[in-house]
Design brief:
This protein is α+β, with helices and mostly antiparallel strands. The chain contains 5 helices and 10 strands.
Length: about 190
């Protein structure tokens, strides 16, 4: 129906609780068929996305979009230095949250795993990573196509920082040819 060969695609995830470079069953409600995902290190996940985009491939992205710092209206998602402060912000402070680049938290594999384990990262939504962009300070963002129409500031696209992707990604789906050679070798994918 869609003109692709499913065998050409690979599902990737990144969770410290599972052995790296091996398949595992991702325990999320949307994985009702108990499909296996290859587990890679968090930084490898970013390298995979970057490599895919540089080679002209796009990436299907399953992620948590329920965070207050994921703004569909403003077309931006990032991880504030102290995300807990958002709840104590005034309305005026919240109004300026997305008006310019802000300092961002540095996400580690431990932080990522803890958010999945305590359900603060959940399997919410699938989108499409289609490109890279830089802000006025040189920080890279992924250009993400969403399916919610064109009602936001960027006509259906959202700019997502790499830290947000590290933190809130559930899984990726991409063509095997988009994988970096070293990671493809570690996963034993031909």
């Amino acid at each position: 129906m869609v003109g692709i060969n499913p065998d050409d695609y690979v599902a990737i995830s990144s969770f410290k609780a599972h052995p790296y470079y091996k398949p595992f069953i991702l325990l999320i409600p949307d994985n009702w068929s108990y499909e296996s995902f290859y587990n890679v290190r968090m930084d490898d996940m970013i390298d995979i996305i970057d490599n895919a985009l540089k080679k002209g491939f796009t990436v299907a992205w399953a992620a948590d979009v329920s965070e207050k710092y994921f703004s569909w209206k403003n077309g931006v998602a990032f991880v504030p230095e102290n995300e807990k402060e958002i709840d104590s912000m005034t309305a005026e402070q919240r109004a300026t949250l997305f008006n310019e680049p802000k300092p961002e938290a540095k996400i580690t594999e431990e932080i990522r795993q803890a958010a999945y384990d305590d359900y603060s990262t959940t399997d919410d939504h699938g989108m499409h990573i289609v490109g890279l962009a830089k802000d006025q300070n040189g920080k890279e963002y992924y250009i993400v196509k969403n399916s919610w129409g064109e009602s936001n500031d960027y006509k259906g696209y959202i700019y997502v920082t790499k830290e947000y992707v590290k933190y809130k990604t559930i899984s990726l789906l991409l063509h095997k040819k988009a994988l970096p050679k070293n990671i493809k070798s570690k996963l034993r994918i031909k």
